[in-house]
Amino acid sequence: MQISIFSINGPIIKTINSSSLCILEMVYVGEKKLIGEVINIDKNFATIQVYENTSGLQVGDIVKRTGNQISVTLSPGLLSNVFDGIQQPLKTIKQNYGDFLIPGSNQSFEENNKYYNIIFRVLKNDIVSSGDIFAVCSETDIIEHRFMIPNGISGKIIDIKQDGSYLITENVIIIEDEFKNIHNIPLFQKWPIRKARPFNKRIPISIPLITGQRIIDSLFPIAKGGVAAIPGGFGTGKTMTQHQLAKWSDADIIIYIGCGERGNEITQVLEEFSSLIDPKSGKPMSNRIVLIANTSNMPVASREASIYTGLTIAEYYRDMGYHVAVMADSTSRWAEALREISGRLEEMPAEEGFPAYLPSKISQFYERAGYTLNLNNTEGSVSIIGAVSPQGSDFSEPVTQNTKRFVRAFWTLDKSLAYSRHYPAINWITSYSEYIEDLSDYYEKNIDPNFLSYRQDIYNILIAEDSLMEIVKLIGSDMLPDDQKLIIEVAKVIRLGFLQQNAFHKIDTYVPLSKQVIMMKIILYLYDKLSLVIEKSIPISYILKTNIFEEIIKMKYSIPNDASNKIFESYTCIIDEKIKNIESSNK
Amino acid sequence: MSLEYKGFSEIKGSLVSIENVKKVSFDEVVEITLPDGEIRIGRVVEILNDKAIIQVFAGTDNFSLENTYSKFKGKPLEFAVSKELLGRIFNGMGKPIDNLGNINYKKSLDINGYPINPMSRKYPVDYINTGISAIDGLATLIRGQKLPIFSGSGMNHNKLAVQIVNQAKIAEKNNQQFGIIFAAMGIKNDVSDYFIKSFKHSGVINNVVMFLNLSNDPIIERIITPRIALTAAEYLAFEEDMHILVILTDMTAYAEAVREFSSSKGEIPGRKGYPGYLYSDLASIYERAGMIKGRTGSITQIPILTMPNDDITHPIPDLTGYITEGQIVLERTLDKKGIYPPISILPSLSRIMKDGIGKGFTREDHPDLANQLFASYSKVMEVIALASVIGEDELSDSDKLYMKFGNLFEQNFISQKENENRSIEQTLEIGWKILSILPKEDLDRIDYNIIEKYYKKEV
Questions:
Q1: What ipTM score was computed for the predicted complex, to two decimals?
Q2: A296:B287 CB<8 A
Q3: B29: which chain A residues are within 8 Å (Cβ-Cβ)?
Q4: pTM for the predicted model, two decimal places
Q5: In chain A, which residue's Cα lies nearest the Cα of B124?
């Protein structure tokens, strides 16, 4: 008996005669061969979620088995490519089917007819095991692709091709395992998206993911292999922050997942990345990015899958020994896709209609990040930065709250900062990072032995300002004593000159940690010296008249990014000079 | 050949079921004939083995279990299009209601459309001058953008929409054609008359296609209206190379229709009773804006929605804001002060303006000036909050200056006449004039060279 459709409700169909199906197996539904996935089986029916628009399906239409779970094809050609949520290459679909995504316009990534120049790293009769690198090729100008022995295969190489150019589907080595089984190994491997790829062991986190964004690197850092969330209402700059991190973070590979977001934003990422030049290599940034684009109007089931597709690709590059950063924009849309599918399955809803398994799904997602020793003894990492779009900008809603439980860096975007166009609109009072301790050794050895104390001093001024502002809101700033006014002025310097960062300014868009330290030192020096002036009972109005604060605020534009510590000394001279003038005019 | 089925097995709200059906496709159209010959249109929304559940758009009144004949049409709902649509008026289901007869159509298109492949999208960068300072200066409209107006009951969003239609230079050159698609969902008769009158008055009526589902029309039809309108827009933009401006009003009434339909189907509700898929559903409308590489036309969308109880966190404005590329928010306090258009500057935003303004597009100082106006006006809000506690007299001199700036900004920059069409230069000049009452040191968002060039010393 053939498996056939019994009922249809939006993207969810039920089939009969389906006892042979497996949970999570991929199937082709109907004449158009729509891609679906088995999510539930009972005595009479199997429930299948379909990754494409089900318009036009009929009861009785045939469902074909594939015998495999929904998988991604891992091979060269992923970088600088754009895929939908189930890894169909959108560029090829455009060439073959036109400007609109019509259901059934299937295109598998394996059919990529490109030859790669392969250089083998193993010899005939070598003994290899899962994860070992057996060949390399240059995938793009800056990334070397390392081919690994697929999981579960090990043994002796009994035949191997010569270095040369091959299609990814060609078998290039033959391995005989200990049971004398023969394995033909091609240049691609398949991996089911919902299963994490194996590694040797996790390594404690100790290196920051440097983003060039001051408020993140200096105040609330994320580590390589770490997880961070960016919650924010609409218009607070989540996507803009994600773009900045994708552009500038020092990961080798970026996986950008546009999950249920705007079509134009994907176009923008594409255009920006092709025109941006990577400062390290001098080549376009698009050479190191994989884009997963499942926009809000594309099918909801493949939106749910897009997150896993992105993560699996990230883990594959991690296994080669690369540092990978995954940007997921936005995890709320993914959670909503879960809710939508759960609703169609008539599952019992928990909070706000979300399914009861939402927290476990979120935790499984973030747990796929980490810094690892791989099977082939290289080290790699997957860092995840997830945007969260809280309903009604209310951070107590289920997705934000459950995300908070599983991430260790939390950058909250603030509406009022966004309204005054203070970008990035990361609120410094409510944001936090638990990675500071883990990274302290790195900062001490590589950046500045006092880095953490500078950070704390800067943060203390901001905290002091925050509590003073409560008073100012009630009585006005004029009523404050001068030493407190000074805190407010210096905090303003920190806010405008340090925390606020202009993504469209040539210098300011990316600032290395070395310059961030210099800036913090200058601000603290200014605060220390001016505190002494105030102690001498010199009114703060004298200080304000010198425009010293404006001058320091401008340092973000006037200090070059490659500045050495000498520039700190020249700034201390300027500050000393001004203070001398203030003191003499007071006499 | 399609079979006809007599009667139903069940009628529940706007849903009917037919049993023992064969070869029925999901989403296909059903024509239901009543004894008096009236034909109502429905759509298959669920199939359970040999039972089809059908959503009837015009309601199920006068239906009994036996008195109807239903015919399955074997295809999804389609709308027939051609250039003859221009100048015509249709009901919410796409039937002409202007007594000018049927149109000769070129082709029939599925009203659900298909998602544009993200690879085919052209990133919008050409700005549209609307002649309204608050929009041009601070939340610039870009051709191919979707920029909603968030309003409240009793505010003059319709006047603003009409002004945008009248003044916006949608087509950039004379040889390019432009068109306006107006889709009304659940608005009052006199509001639709106001739009028709205004379109006639300004002489654009021959370029307008209207789809009217008014407040006394069937509610479930509202789910179809914007989709038909956008199908027409897509045809005119992407096949006839026209620049199309789509006005959808009122999206709140649309979302309520979706809620009504969902609850009659017995679906599990999400927030405030709206179905969990409201985001995807709204996205399937809003994302049908944009431009495509290699085609000259464009679809710019201005959806209008009334925020229930002026609450921007209500699911409808909230989800809309997450999908659209910015928003223009109207504010009741400004409206009460008699300021037109009552655009609340701080929450208003155009996400894609940054690539369409500045040197080579509008003027080099535009981005910095806009930023500074936002920053300074948000300072005004802080000062007003303080003044409400300690009294205006107790404010420091600098704070008093900001109060003055705030007033001038509202009176001269935001406020303008409903037929006043300002050029971008005029808008920027007014901005500089007001900004120049603040001391230069306070202008921390503007590049030093730009301040030197544009700051008005004499003020």
A1: 0.89
A2: yes
A3: none
A4: 0.92
A5: A264
